[in-house]
Design brief:
Order of helices and strands: HHHHHHHHHHHHHHHHHHHHHHHH
Largest sheet: none
Strand content: under 5%
Number of helices: 24
Helix content: over 70%
Distance between the termini: 77 Å
Length: 474
Amino acid sequence: MDKPSNSPRKFLWVKRIFTLLVGITIWHLPVPWELSADAWHLFAIFITAIIGVLINALSIFTASILALVAVVLLRVLPPEKAFSGFSESFILLILAAFLVAKGVIKSGLGRRIAFLLIRQFGKSTLNLGYCIVATDTLLGPAIPSNTARSGILYPITHALALDTGSQPTPEGRKKTGSYLMMTAISGHTISSALWLTGMAANPVGAGIAAQFGVNMNFGNWVFVASVPCIVALITIPLLLYKLFPPEIKHTPEAPKMAREALGKMGPMSRREWIMGITFFGMILLWAFSPVLNLNLAIVAFLGLSILILSNVYTLEDIREGAGDALETYVWFAILYMMSAALNDLGFMKTLGAQIATYIGDYNWVTVYLLLTLLYVAIHYLFVSQTAHLLALYAVFLQVAVNAEVPVALMAFMLSFATNYFAVITPQASSSNVIFAGSGYLPSGDIYKQGAIITVLNTLIFLLATPWILWASSL
C-alpha cells in the first residue's frame, strides 16, 4: 500500500518560505522617498501578509496574526497602536451584525424570506443573483453605511444559499452559495456608487470636491452615476454566472418546493416576529442614524441584546457558532490597523505624490486615465475606503487640475472609484468582511473574482466618461 504523499504540505512550506524571503528582502531595501524607517518596515510587513494570502501560503487569519506579532516584536509600532483596530466602532459593527445575521437564520425568518424569494424568482440561480442586487440597490439611499447594509443583505443571501442546497463546505459551496455571496458583495460596490448616501465616504468626497468648485448633491450624483451603475448592475451577476458558474443553474421545481415549504412552516412563529420586528427596527435606526446622531455599532448591539433577552439567539448559540464571527473580527481589525498606521505615517500620501510627479506632464486624457487606474490599483494597500479617499482624493484631484483635466469629471470618477474598487480584496471594504467569513468564499476566490469585477467596473465607468463629462457639467 502506497504511503500518502507529503508533497502538498511540502509545497505549502515552500510558499511560506518564499513569502518570508520576500518580506525580508523588502524590509532591507533602502528606504525610498524620504519615508521614515517605521513607515517602510510597516509596509514590508503589510505587503508580506497580503502576498502570503494571495499565493495561498497562509490563511488571511494566520497571516494577520503573524503580521501583528511582527509589528510589535520588531518594534515598528507600540502595542497600544497595534491593538487599536479592535476598538474601532465600525469593526465592532461587523461583529455585532454577524451575530444578528445568525439570529435571523436561527429564528427561521431568514429561511422564510429565502423561500418567499425562491417562490417568486427561484427558477434559476441567475434570477436570485439579480434579486439580491436589486434588494441592495433599493436599500442604498436609505442606509448611509454599506457595512450596515451588508448586515441586512448577508442573512438573506446565506439563507438563499442554504435553501437551494448549498452548504459552506468545499464541496457544497459551489452549488449556489459562492455565486450568490460573490454577486452580493460585487453588486454592493455599485449600489454604494449609485447614491450619495450609499456609503459613508461619499459625502466626504463631495466636501473635498467642493473645495475645487465641484457641486455634488443627491440629485446630480444619482444622475451622473445612473448610466454606468445601471450597466454594471445588469452586467455583474451575468458575468459571474458565466465565468464562475454555480453548479446548480436551473431550478424549475424550486418555486413549487418553496410554496410547499412555506405551507409546512405555517404562520410566523413568536421567534420570527421578534426577529422581524428587531431587524426592521435596526434598519430604521440605521437609516435615520445621521438625524438621530446614533452610532451604527450601538444599533447593532441593541438588536443583539434584544435577541438575547428574548431568547431568540442565546448565549449558548454564540458559544457554539460564533467562531467565524470572531475570526473575521480579528483579522479585519489587524489589517485595518496596519493600513491606518501606514496612512498616519505618511506612506500613502507620499506614494500618491510620487506617482503624481511621473504623470503630470502628459495630456489631460492620459492623466485622467492614469489617475483613475492608479487610484483603483493602490486600493490593494488599503483596508478602508474612507481612509483611501482621505489620503489620496485631494492629491489626485490637484494633479488633475494641474494637467487641465475637467475637474468635475475627475472628482466624480474618483468618488465612484472609491466605491467600485471595494471588491478588489477580502479586506478592501468592511462591507465584504461578513461575506468573507461565511465559509462560501475562500480568500483566494475573492482575490481572483474580485480582480475581474474591479476590472469590469473600471472599464464600464471609463467607457461612460463622455456621459460623466456631460452630466457633471450641467
